[in-house]
Write a structure and sequence with these properties.
By secondary structure, the protein is α+β, with helices and mostly antiparallel strands. It has helices spanning 3-13, 17-30, 48-56, 58-62, 74-82, and strands at residues 38-43, 66-70, 90-94. A three-stranded mixed β-sheet has the order 2-1-3, with helices on both faces. Helix 1 packs antiparallel against helix 2 (17-30). The N and C termini lie close together (11 Å). The model has no long low-confidence stretch (mean pLDDT 94).
Length: 105
């Protein structure tokens, strides 16, 4: 297990959602190397909850810590289909190959 995965596992183990998200943002911010994780907010046009979620994370979006992808775009649709994401909005942690990152067992 890599140090990065250990850090990610530590974030996932945090029970407070806001603290866990802050932890993941820090991992995204400080990640180095060719295969860095990224936080992606999947949204859809004319989706009120998506607009609310985007507004909630606007500061992190502006800082480049969270990338917004619409499932109406080719890239967003590819991420959603590949990872069997059926609901929007969805805030997910992806590796450099757009695979969901889960806690290790």
């Amino acid at each position: 297990m890599t140090d990065q995965q250990k850090n990610i596992d530590g974030c996932f183990a945090i029970e407070d959602n806001n603290a866990a998200l802050a932890c993941l943002k820090e991992i995204v911010r400080t990640a180095t190397g060719p295969c860095r994780p990224r936080l992606v907010l999947l949204t859809q046009e004319r989706c009120i909850p998506c607009a609310e979620e985007k507004a909630r994370h606007q500061e992190a979006i502006d800082k480049g810590l969270i990338q917004v992808l619409s499932v109406n775009s080719p890239e967003g649709l590819e991420v959603a289909v590949k990872n069997q994401l059926e609901n929007v909005p969805s805030l997910v942690l992806l590796d450099c190959k757009d695979n969901l990152i889960f806690p290790s067992d």
